[in-house]
Amino acid sequence: MSQKINGVKGMNDLLPGEIEVWQFVESTARTLFGRFGYGEVRTPVVEDTALFVRSVGEETDIVGKEMYTFEDKGGRSLSLRPEGTAPAARAYIEHSVNNQEPVSRWFYMGPMFRYERMKTGRYRQFSQIGAEAYGAKEPAQDAELMDVVVQFLEALGLTDVTLNINSLGDDNCRPAYHAKLVEYLNAHREELCADCQQRLERNPLRVLDCKNEKCQAVAGAGPNVLEFLCEPCRAHFTDLQRKLGVLGIRYVVNHRLVRGLDYYTRTVFEFIASHPALGTASTVGGGGRYDKMMKGLGGPDVPAVGFAMGLDRLVLLLKEGGKTFTQRPDLFIAVADEGSQDQGLALASRLRREGLKVDFDTRGGSLKSQMKRADKSGARFTLVLGEQERQSGQAKLKPMAGGEPIPVALDAVAATVRAQPEAPAPVPAV
Ligand code: ATP
Ligand code: MG
After folding, report:
1. CATH among 3.30.930.10, 1.50.10.10, 3.30.450.80, 3.40.50.720 for 19-173+229-320
2. 154 pLDDT higher than 50
3. Residue 232 — pLDDT band, cuts 50, 70, 90?
4. Is the pTM here over 0.70, yes or no?
């Protein structure tokens, strides 16, 4: 016997039965982003490695440790995208979008790849939904972007999520904070984990991002970035908070929030779920402002703000909620005899064309076994088609939840099923 080949570690298959919750999240996102005027952008899953090195940053975990990098047959260094902001920015620059409109709002969704140690909510191929707003430097844009996420989470029914915000300042004020942080962390070097001792050398801000409790305690007692903000950065942060108030969005100011990417300036934010199912992977999404990145990538001087959410974690939370997302069939058609098989197949086809979700067992078999399958299918009604029904053109809809059979003409099945008062199968209510 040939040896079985398994899927790649950390990369999951999604099968029917599980995919419905994903489709619910995706369709809800499309609806919400559409309402806010965000258009969808799709970029390739592979990019020039230099794109991520220059934007995300060489010293970040993402680029330093987690990227799937390979050489193609032409000797180019390519990487599977670990995130979506840099590819979208690359596309924005490449297509000179800033020459066509002053403000652009884009969203994307799709797979991202990071070579990580796996746990619940942490995979090597995972999915993100993200949005980017280019061209507006005002705090109102930061607030509007957070509002999309808030409304998106509301539409999903995920309410137990807290928005954390912070400001990292800009080139003007961050160096002073940076120097103070390095001085402080050096004085507490021995208390930090081995990883953070290295981070301290290469990228000290990352120490604030460490999941280790001891490091968090050290970082928490250190200098507060907000006390170092220059006047324009302080004004931006104050106005952002005022605007969040105007929108009725609740938030927590968290001065330890830095996020794992190098490109942020001023506003950063994270949405953190309190459900224990996510463990250390409790951040469902986050983002921030990156006013310098476009220029750093050789593009125009265009300010930008964006965020990304992990779909895998949203799906985990929704599954914990226990709601079902599979759409059950309206009707199961069973045939009473061999001779009705063709008409059964044709009736199913016609009713599907008329918009019903119909289950029909192409294997045929005894009526008893078909009725068992009808039960299992979760269909609202079963219709048995036999010689008598074919001759008379009349049949009965048997409600699977119990109750009296409903007489129906074979040419009026769709209308009769639709007229039945029972609530239709759950569909995303956005
Ligand atoms: P974490 O601190 O949990 O590693 P991160 O800062 O690396 O997160 P981002 O780069 O900000 O994550 O990505 C945004 C979102 O994408 C995260 O909040 C999370 O929901 C999701 N995400 C990131 N990495 C993974 C992964 N390996 N598996 C599943 N989801 C992920
Ligand atoms: Mg990470």
Report:
1. 3.30.930.10
2. yes
3. very high
4. yes
Tell me the CA distances in angstroms from 216 to 1, 207, 222, 257, 333, one per residue in order. 53, 8, 10, 11, 61
User: 82-135 pLDDT, tens per residue?
Assistant: 999 999 999 999 999 999 999 999 999 999 999 999 888 899 999 999 999 999
Question: 314 CB less than 6 Å from ligand 1?
Answer: no
**Fold adopted by 331-419:** Rossmann fold (3.40.50)
Which regions of the chain carry the CATH code 3.40.50.800? 331-419
Distance 272 CA to ligand 2 centre (A): 14
3-state secondary structure 72-108: CCCCCEEEECCCCHHHHHHHHHHCCHHHCCCCEEEEE
> Would you say 128 is a known binding-site residue?
yes
User: Is 403 annotated as ligand-binding?
Assistant: no
> In this structure, which residue's CA is closest to atom 21 in ligand 1?
310
For residue 124, say whether it is annotated as part of any ligand binding site: no
162 in Cβ contact with 275 (< 8 Å): no
